[in-house]
Structure to design on (212 residues):
């Protein structure tokens, strides 16, 4: 994590945020928590603009997700799975099980998965693959990806801004790890509640249509 912080310090924050979030949205395991949160931490001191941090992070995520989308769209499932099972895939901490998990998530939640999936660990950087395989309309894909990625990066930016007031910089990475776990569980809980709500709503609407 210190390595990522050093890259951000030496290569320039905004371009590096964009590039690292591009990588995170492909298949390279770059943890967004340790990119966006430290950037927002520094923004709280006035050295960066927190809105530009979220903007560049989201643009990077959009480009990375689009790469996954179009690769999946044009090369198809056999090549995707072959790469996931290759040594290169394993170097990216990728395997067939993770790809299958992202496909199942997409199948279970439909096109909205490209939005909600941005908040789910493991699923976040792979959800664009099943979207491409399913030939989801690109306009809808990039809209939902932008909303989901923007929402997730905003949460991380708020965390970084908050930590600036209570944590010295040498303890930042430890606190990010601690708080990130709480955030993940809270967001997963909200997603589960939202899914339950929409399922119940759909069933009630279907029941009303049958009785009408």
């Amino acid at each position: 994590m210190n390595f990522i912080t050093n890259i951000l310090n030496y290569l320039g924050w905004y371009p590096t945020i964009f590039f690292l979030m591009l990588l995170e949205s492909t298949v390279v395991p770059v943890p967004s928590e340790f990119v966006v949160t430290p950037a927002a931490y520094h923004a709280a001191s006035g050295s960066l603009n927190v809105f530009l941090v979220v903007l560049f992070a989201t643009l990077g995520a959009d480009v990375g997700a689009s790469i996954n989308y179009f690769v999946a769209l044009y090369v198809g499932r056999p090549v995707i799975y072959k790469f996931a099972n290759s040594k290169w895939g394993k170097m990216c901490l990728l395997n067939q099980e993770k790809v299958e998990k992202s496909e199942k998530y997409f199948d279970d939640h439909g096109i909205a998965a490209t939005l909600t999936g941005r908040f789910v660990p493991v699923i976040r950087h792979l959800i664009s693959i099943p979207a491409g395989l399913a030939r989801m309309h690109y306009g809808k894909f990039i809209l939902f990806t932008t909303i989901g990625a923007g929402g997730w990066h905003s949460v991380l930016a708020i965390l970084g801004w908050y930590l600036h007031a209570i944590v010295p910089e040498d303890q930042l990475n430890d606190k990010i790890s601690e708080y990130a776990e709480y955030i993940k569980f809270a967001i997963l809980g909200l997603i589960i509640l939202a899914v339950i709500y929409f399922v119940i709503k759909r069933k009630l609407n279907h029941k009303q249509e049958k009785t009408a």
In short: The radius of gyration is 18 Å. The first helix runs from residue 2 to 11.
